[in-house]
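Problem 12. The chain below contains 355 residues. Write out its predicted structure in token notation.
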Amino acid sequence: MMEIKKERGAVYCNEEAWKHLKSKLVSLHPSKLFILVNTHTARFCLPVFLELSEITSYEVLTIEAGEKYKNITSCVDLWHLLSEKGADRKSVLINLGGGVVTDLGGFVASTFKRGIEFINIPTSLLAMVDASVGGKNGVDLGTLKNQIGVIKEPLQVIVDTNFLKTLPKNEVVSGYAEMLKHGLIHSEDYWNDVQKFDIKNPASEENLIWKSILIKNEVVTEDPFEQNRRKTLNYGHTLGHAIESYCLASETKKTLLHGEAIAIGIILATFLSTELLNFPKQKCQHIANVILSHYPKVEFTETTINDCIELLKYDKKNQHGKVLFVLLNDIGKHEINCEVPNDLIYKAFSYYKNL
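Solution.
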């Protein structure tokens, strides 16, 4: 049975999930029910959600689609809307969308009137296996990723893989990067299994998606506030987030989806692991080949690399002015709080360039 039962952060998958949602809303008896969507999920997912949930009394709140709208301005607009529409502490916010919607919606709910209940309905692969699970809610600060936020689990997460049929291929591939990461930090078995994921038919891959959810849930349950093991979920994200932020800010560089940037970060982190922790070089090459079979190469000039390294000082894992990486001794065997000299970072980019 695909469900994770707990007081907060319960996760339910597919058909049975909707029964749990209906039951929870009956018990909550909200004064008002709000549904947060973006311009894409309003069109493609909201009608499906309303049919499956059988909700009839609700207000829809809409934000623009895209990472650049994951900011405090969007939050202020939503706080005003909630006030204008009479939301109180017994109101409930349902976040229907990808990672931007669940991250931002969770933050809005966690802070409005010092906290109202919220439920996540992830509609992208990225949100299903990563963003909507674990209670990280927040927004970007300019182009700097996830600098402002709180940790609070949603009341429930309702996963229905049928929503994946509404996604363009590049959004599916973006979410797949997080599943590949789960394989690398968890076990050789899952790493081998996740390579068989069918990009063209993601809704059919329910078991692999659920395994990724279980891996993330296990990690965040053990370490909810990222003091130790939860840091492993940032594998590939230290440089990946820097690359993503750089591309968001650049007027000439194409903006990368989260998973596209993290895929590059995974290759870089795995190379660094070979240099610092003797990660097997043959496996490093295999991992790079798997990733490059799904993600296009991106060119980095020396100036770009310098700018990305400069952005590392904003990484959330940093302590006492030190940039700290998650690296691997082997697949499923991690080391946290690793310091990496800049000359090795340049060497990692050179390795990526020459693949």
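Discussion. Residues 258-277 form the longest helix (20 residues). Students who got a different answer should revisit the alignment rule from Section 12.3.
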